[in-house]
Amino acid sequence: MSQQSVSLIDVATYLPGEPIGADYYAQFAESDDLRDNLMFRAPRFRHHVGADETAVDMIERAARGLIERHGEDVVAGADVLITHTQAPDLPFYGAGGGVAHRLGMRPSWVLDLHNGGCAVFVLALNIARKLLSSGEGRTALIAVAQNAAGQVFDQPGVRRKAQAAVPGDGAAVGLVTLGDRSPILDVECRTYGEYHGEMTLSPDPPRKWWEPGTGELCIGFTESKITKVLARGNRQVPEVALAVCDRIDLSPKDIDLFVTNQPNRVFLRNWRDALELPKSRHVDTFDECGNLFGAGIPINLDRALSGGQVRAGDVIMMAGFAHAGDFAGAAAVRWGGRA
Q1: Name one GO biological process term (predicted).
Q2: pLDDT per residue over 165-187, tens digit each?
Q3: What are phi and psi of 255, to 5 degrees?
Q4: 339: pLDDT strictly greater than 90
Q5: Which of 60, 158, 152 has its CA nearest to residue 100?
Q6: What is the dihedral of CA 313, 274, 329, 279, to 10 degrees?
Q7: Burial (Cβ within 10 Å: 0-12, 13-18, ≥19) of residue 299
């Protein structure tokens, strides 16, 4: 028996608050060995999660677009819920249960993903495709919240560092269903376990994240680590995208829209150059939103769809890598148009 087609039929997004300009961070900037590193060239704007805004709040607000276009029953009736939160509201579990309750869902499957990082939307698409095509339901909801910018990177001590000005917050939800309206053509997911743990927290004075202390949590970047991450990211994202192109018999030059995570401008340029794509076919919101981590791919896709950059029949290639390079994934969808 042939496997049923599974489609990504829509995405909806949410950006919290008003845009915050680069001058906000300029007022706090101090001498930093990494200030001039290409990894930390600041975007013009970004958004920050509200002081009392939870990941569940953000996802609920993102879901409004799906509810408006497809009806409350479609969202509430999803059989599978897959979530990812960059900075979980509580340390011991993700947002899955809270999202299900807030959206009135009773799904058979609730999965909170952590390892997908900035490429988590691709990982979630792969899981949703496998579950639905194997008979575990007809509809899946993917929900991603990036909320570290306003909570972690805006701590008084951290916002003086070069790394603080790059991240931005946002949330996105995707609706996946059985059927061939906007079929997921193929997905490639690769785990590079040898790089696990290379993205570290570096409070001063040193402590474990759960230990009491005065040092604020920030990412432990060094010139050596940055060089390695740049090399891995430059290689991994084109590799997984090309693997998908090869299996669906598509020349990379024929990708109609390339959608990636967006750590910085250097990666964005190198990735589209590697696939020989013009900038017009690689959507990004870096200067409006900064590094959106796992929410970057769906937020950029929604921006392209809402802006009329995608026509029915176009092939969308989504690709990204996570953390210090321990995961990468790519997914191709033949877009069938919004309902």
Answers
A1: secondary metabolite biosynthetic process
A2: 999 999 999 999 999 999 999 99
A3: -65, 125
A4: no
A5: 60
A6: -50
A7: buried
